[in-house]
Design a protein that fits this description.
- There is one protein chain.
- The protein is α+β, with helices and mostly antiparallel strands.
- Among the domains are: about 240 residues, no CATH class; about 150 residues, Heat Shock Protein 90, CATH 3.30.565.10.
- Helices cover about 55% and strands about 20% of the residues.
- The chain has 18 helices and 19 strands.
- A 6-stranded mixed beta sheet has the order 13-15-16-18-17-19, with helices on one face.
- Strand 17 and strand 18 form a beta hairpin.
- It is flat.
- The chain starts with a helix and ends with a strand.
- The N terminus is likely disordered.
Length: about 700
């Protein structure tokens, strides 16, 4: 901001001491910020939207180029069909088919004249046996359907090119040229040929196919297609001045057909030429040719940066053999962009200077009376009894009225100042005394409330745990003996049945599993009431097998209901858990979900990897039902021990499940919508964490609707 004082010949130290210059700065500051913001917004819009439009254009150009290649192949097929349907060919072919030796030369001469007329690089008639013996044509024969032609791209070695036409071997040979950002070539010459080849069945009079027309073009050194595409997409007026639009067909990473110039703007005796044999940059080769991906971005083309689009080319077998490229030089766009920024900046600076001058001239006369008022205020502060009216301000304006009001205020202030000072001193003493007393009472009350809440919560928890411990001990004593008898009798039954035990082996094993689950539940109850006495071993497990085992176990519990279990098991990351305890948690949640529905409905069980910052840290399990839902006032109590809304429930299932999950550091969340259903989400870490069960709802998340 220091340039404003220099413009108007004002010393900066003097300006800081004067109110009018401070107001002047505050007046000009929004203008300056607005102009600077406008510059940056314009730059951002230019970079964002202009860049996007350039990439969209070059991508559309690439689409035109690809479609042109396809149309070239379709055109080849039409050309072969015209040759086959011509009267000359039909007449010669009928004679040739009857006497092959006599008329072979005649039909070859006809095809040679047609080849030159249609601008094809080769056109010949081959028999079925010749085509079957040729490994290249054999691939195309497999794709010919009926009497329709088939076209595709093909790369041939020099020996195989010579079999078609020896002249194409010379045409295909292109010396390689290393470019600044390309990989160093492993050979000096590219002698393979890239062909657009079409094969058309030629039926005889009886409709049998014994011959094929084989024709096409060689892309090596061919400039017709790339120049045609360039003229389509980069016609005059489509690009800025000195911007060059180019199109290239690559064999592997070598330019074999291109209009990229050797010298963009030749000088002296230089010839513009074409960059045949030059290599594409290594980063483009890796992404497009090696990985088969589309490139739409800036790219270094031969010796300059271009807005470029590359796409891979595939041969008749679906193998990547090269690339096709469209693009235009980037530097003219950057030049125009910088020129626009300079023009905009110049205009904004002129606007700023003119605005500053106008604001200063208008504010000077307006702010001069304020300086007088400032002198009066300083005089009053120093103890002098000075008034603004004595300075002779002009009458009948807002500042004069303000001065009169200010003088009356000073008079009133002077009369009451002593009274206010005395009253203020007394008031400060009283306020300080009352404030100190109030703070002491407030702190005491807060401490008492906190102590009362803690005591009440501890008493409730202790009473529940005591009751649970006594109940669990009794249950364990009463149930363990019958379960032991059941297990013993099941083993005896298997022994007595002998070989016949195989018929009911699945039922016997299921009974044994359920008895084991009863024992596990008893241990979990004891663990909940006295968690320090039980340390369940933790092991690494895949989640999907545990889910599948749970589904087998709950099948009998919900078989009377028409419940559909939908599974989406996508978790793959291992977790450290106790398998029986996790089974118990999952069974509790699924059975509760089934009970929440009236006879029928759907339950979704989903698993997926738990990912944070792009790295997996564990897995998550979702169990969702379409039951009646949980009201908001009940949602915060569902994990309390002995709390249940079912007449036949114990109120321990969710409480035990919560304790099991939290003891291994996991998370459990619940959300519910009344009338729509409930969703439980369990998060389990790859490596179990320390026990986190401190209060009944620590780490819980509720979401009710």
């Amino acid at each position: 901001m220091s340039f404003f004082p220099r413009i108007f010949g004002i010393n900066w130290q003097q300006m800081q001491a004067k109110v009018r210059y401070r107001i002047l700065i505050l007046t000009l500051l929004p203008i300056l910020l607005t102009l600077v913001s406008l510059v940056f917004i314009t730059i951002y819009w230019n970079i964002s939207y202009t860049g996007k439009q350039l990439f969209m254009k070059v991508k559309a150009d690439l689409t035109v180029a690809n479609n042109t290649l396809i149309s070239v192949q379709k055109s080849q097929e039409k050309q072969l069909e015209l040759v086959m349907e011509s009267w000359e060919f039909q007449n010669d072919f009928r004679l040739f088919d009857g006497n092959k030796n006599s008329y072979r030369k005649q039909i070859d001469l006809l095809l040679d004249s047609k080849k030159q007329l249609l601008n094809l690089d080769f056109l010949r008639l081959v028999s079925v046996s010749e085509a079957a013996a040729d490994p290249d044509l054999r691939v195309m024969l497999q794709k010919v359907k009926g009497d329709s032609a088939y076209s595709g791209l093909m790369v041939l070695e020099p020996k195989r090119l010579a079999l078609i036409d020896p002249e194409m071997v010379k045409t295909a040979s292109i010396p390689l040229v290393e470019t600044p950002r390309s990989q160093k070539p492993t050979k000096t010459v590219e002698d393979r040929g890239l062909l657009s080849r079409s094969l058309l069945p030629v039926p005889d009079a009886e409709g049998n196919v014994a011959w094929y027309l084989d024709g096409g073009i060689l892309f090596n050194r061919d400039i017709r297609i790339v120049d045609h595409i360039r003229d389509l997409v980069y016609d005059k007026g489509t690009l800025p001045e000195r911007s060059i639009g180019t199109v290239t067909i690559f064999l592997d990473n070598t330019r074999i057909s291109t209009n990229v110039p050797l010298h963009f703007f030749p000088q002296g005796g230089e010839v513009q030429g074409r960059a045949l044999g030059s290599l594409v940059s290594e980063e483009v080769k890796q992404k497009v040719f090696s990985q088969g991906m589309l490139w739409v971005d800036r790219a270094f083309v031969f010796n300059d940066w271009f807005i470029s689009a590359y796409a891979p080319l595939e041969d008749v077998q679906g193998k990547r053999i090269g690339m096709i490229y469209t693009g235009f030089s980037e530097s003219p766009f950057i030049h125009n962009y910088l020129l626009n920024i300079i023009e905009l900046g110049t205009i904004l600076m002129l606007v700023l200077l003119v605005s500053g001058l106008l604001v200063y001239r208008g504010a000077y006369s307006l702010l001069q009376p304020i300086e007088r008022i400032h002198h009066v205020v300083k005089a009053v502060q120093s103890g002098r009894n000075l008034r603004i009216g004595s300075l002779g301000l002009e009458r009948d304006n807002e500042l004069s009225n303000l001065a009169e009001q200010f003088d009356r205020m000073l008079d009133l202030l002077q009369r009451r100042n002593s009274q206010i000072q005395a009253a203020a001193e007394q008031l400060e003493v009283k306020v300080e005394e009352r404030t100190r007393s109030l703070q002491e009472k407030t702190e005491e009350l807060q401490n008492n409330v906190a102590l009362l809440n803690e005591t009440r919560q501890q008493l409730v928890t202790n009473e529940k745990l005591t009751a649970l411990g006594e109940l669990t001990a009794g249950i364990a004593h009463e149930i363990n003996n019958p379960t032991a008898v059941i297990l013993g009798n099941m083993e005896l039954m298997k022994y007595e049945l002998g070989d016949r035990a195989e018929d009911v082996e699945e039922e016997i094993d299921l009974v044994i599993q359920q008895v084991g689950r009863i024992s596990t539940i008893i241990r979990s109850l004891l663990q909940y009431s006295r968690p320090g006495e039980f340390n369940a071993p933790l092991e690494m497990h895949q989640l999907t097998p545990i889910i599948e085992e749970m589904l087998v176990l709950v099948r009998h519990s919900i078989q009377e209901q028409k419940v559909i279990l939908n599974q989406e098991l996508n978790a793959s990351y291992p977790i450290e858990v106790n398998r029986p305890q996790l089974l118990q948690v999952l069974i509790n949640l699924v059975v509760n979900a089934a009970h929440a529905m009236d006879e029928e409905g759907r339950i979704w069980i989903r698993t997926y990897d738990w990912v944070q910052r792009g790295e997996p840290i564990g897995v998550k399990i979702e169990i969702e039902d379409e039951g009646k839902g949980i009201p908001q006032e009940q949602l915060s109590r569902i994990f309390d021990p002995f709390y249940t809304t079912r007449a036949d429930g114990t109120g321990l299932g969710l409480s035990l499940s919560y304790g099991i999950i939290k003891r291994i550091g996991g998370t459990i969340e619940v959300s519910s919508t009344v009338g729509k259903g409930t969703l439980f989400t369990i998060g389990l870490y790859h490596k179990a964490k320390e026990e986190q069960v401190d209060t009944p709802y620590e780490g819980l998340h509720f979401n009710g609707h």
